[in-house]
Design goal:
With 480 residues, the chain is of the alpha/beta class. 39% of the residues lie in helices and 17% in strands. The protein is built from 16 helices and 14 strands. The strands form 3 sheets. Strands 1-2-3-5-4-7-8-12-13-14 form a 10-stranded mixed β-sheet, with helices on both faces. The protein has a two-stranded antiparallel sheet with strand order 6-11. Strands 9-10 form a two-stranded antiparallel sheet. Helix 9 runs antiparallel to helix 10. The protein is globular and about 65 Å long. The termini are far apart. The N terminus is likely disordered.
């Protein structure tokens, strides 16, 4: 077959695919959280829950398609949300809505709900029978044992419903992207991801590289980085201290945040603090070191939250645990029983951790500020659901010359700049942009980030190696 005939047949096939995909879509009016409205399309399609299982049930995957507005319609831009467990459609509703709209000048923008999220087939939440006392001491080891028991119980709960948990892995999600591309009638797609979304994108660059035109990756999580290195969390706090030191008032208040945190942790180890449970008269909560390390792990993703973390530790240091307890009950609700969602739990367990990295994590956690609470519930629940781990071959970083834009924030408390460099080292056509003073959620940190993304998608124009944003005032708590 000569090239002209082949290309003609491909074009005809793609047109047929596109017609089929559009027939499965429904026009909708999409309403953002701001109240803004835009005409869009809601599409669904079915895939096997577990492709390796010939008896697998079908699940539905959902997406919102925002049609292209520019004169040149490039490949569909597929947004991959983080978590794992965040829905793409939900992200499009919130603060990134303007960026979703702006990127339409390059092609259709797809807010994809990965399996188990958003409007795709959802799995019911599991509330186990396992309880954790809130008013008496519970050691780290005892809590982890209870959580493993709850995880095993929840695994049985979902399997009894006919759910194949082995289908909730990053590799299955890669095949979902391939199926989505087919449904969209596109020869290739552009991937746009953040955090776990980049984990999925990196797997796609390994597994289906010919189907990916280019990728925009922010706050990259490598394929063997589901479990973070505790020493790099300590290095992050050193960068935060350097940022604090640029503000005289903040420096005077917080001259040694690592020392403050270690002092508070030691105090709570000696004598946990009793505090009233928010909104419950007569009920008490025993604040322990692990509670504070869990709270800190939730607050360090972005520099805007550092003032809250500093206030919490300073107040506990002064003997007042009120703010800490209020935030813990707001974010974590430690009342029994232990509950969890299937998709994020399975995804993280399947991506797993190599033995070499796990050994390093356990050694570093012994002296690290947050121990291994940043990683919870991995690696603590590793192996509870047998046969899920994807293995070390999966965790090998991708290589190739696909054009990739890598955006890294210097004050990202979850995915660290040096880790992101390692995760993308094999991508020889990567353009790297450091967003100085930005955190994990950096897409809306500066208009210059948007300009860099536009230049990358256009394949021309200047992309700076560094973008600088202003630091927040570390002495002023943001509204919570």
């Amino acid at each position: 077959m000569n090239p002209t005939t082949r290309n003609t047949l491909i074009a005809i096939a793609l047109c047929a695919i596109a017609a089929t995909a559009q027939a499965a879509e429904e026009p909708i009016t999409f309403t953002a959280g701001s109240g803004e409205k835009v005409e869009a399309f809601h599409g669904t399609f079915e895939v096997p829950e577990h492709r390796a299982n010939p008896e697998s049930r079908k699940i539905t995957l959902s997406y919102i398609r925002f049609p292209a507005t520019g004169e040149k319609h490039g490949n569909p831009i597929v947004y991959l949300a983080g978590g794992p467990g965040a829905p793409g459609s939900g992200t499009a509703e919130r603060q990134r809505f303007p960026l979703f709209m702006a990127l339409r000048q390059h092609g259709d923008v797809i807010a994809f709900d990965q399996r188990g999220t958003g409007q795709s087939t959802r799995l019911s939440h599991c509330s186990s029978s396992v309880t954790v006392p809130i008013d008496e001491p519970v050691s780290d080891a005892a809590y982890m044992a209870l959580y493993r028991t709850a995880t095993a119980e929840c695994g049985t709960f979902w399997r009894d419903q006919g759910i194949d948990l082995a289908g909730y892995t990053t590799l299955e999600s890669v095949q979902d992207l391939s199926a989505l591309r087919w449904e969209l009638g596109a020869e290739r797609i552009t991937l746009w991801g953040i955090s776990y979304g980049t984990h999925l994108a990196l797997a796609a660059l390994k597994e289906i590289p010919d189907e990916v035109d280019r990728a925009i990756l922010a706050s990259v999580e490598g394929l063997d980085q589901t479990v973070k290195l505790p020493e790099r969390t300590d290095a992050y706090f050193a960068r935060v201290q350097a940022a604090i030191n640029t503000q005289p008032k903040a420096k005077a208040l917080y001259p040694d945040i690592a020392g403050l945190m270690r002092r508070v942790h030691a105090r709570l180890n000696r004598e946990p603090m009793i505090v009233a449970v928010p909104s419950e008269e007569g009920t008490t909560f025993l604040l322990q070191r692990g509670h504070l390390q869990s709270l800190a792990s939730a607050l360090i993703s972005d520099p805007e939250n550092i003032a809250v973390l500093l206030a919490v530790y300073s107040m506990v240091d002064a003997g007042d645990a009120t703010l800490a307890a209020n935030l813990i009950f707001r974010f974590f609700n430690p009342r029994p029983p232990i509950g969890m969602s299937a998709m994020p739990t399975a995804m993280d367990m399947a991506s797993g951790v190599s033995e070499a990295r796990l050994t390093l994590v356990r050694e570093q956690a012994k002296s690290s500020l947050l121990a291994d609470y940043l990683n919870f519930p991995m690696p603590q629940v590793a192996g509870v659901w047998p046969g899920l781990d994807l293995g070390d071959d999966f965790r090998t970083n991708p290589a190739g010359d696909t054009p990739v834009l890598v955006l890294s924030g210097t004050l990202d408390g979850r995915t660290y700049p040096e880790s992101q460099q390692e995760a993308t080292a094999g991508l020889t056509n990567a353009t790297r942009v450091t967003v100085r003073n930005a955190g994990h959620n950096l897409f809306m940190a500066s208009p210059d980030v948007h300009l860099a993304i536009h230049s990358f998608l256009e394949g021309k124009g200047y992309i700076p190696a560094e973008i600088r944003v202003d630091l927040p005032d570390f002495t002023v708590m943001p509204p919570m």
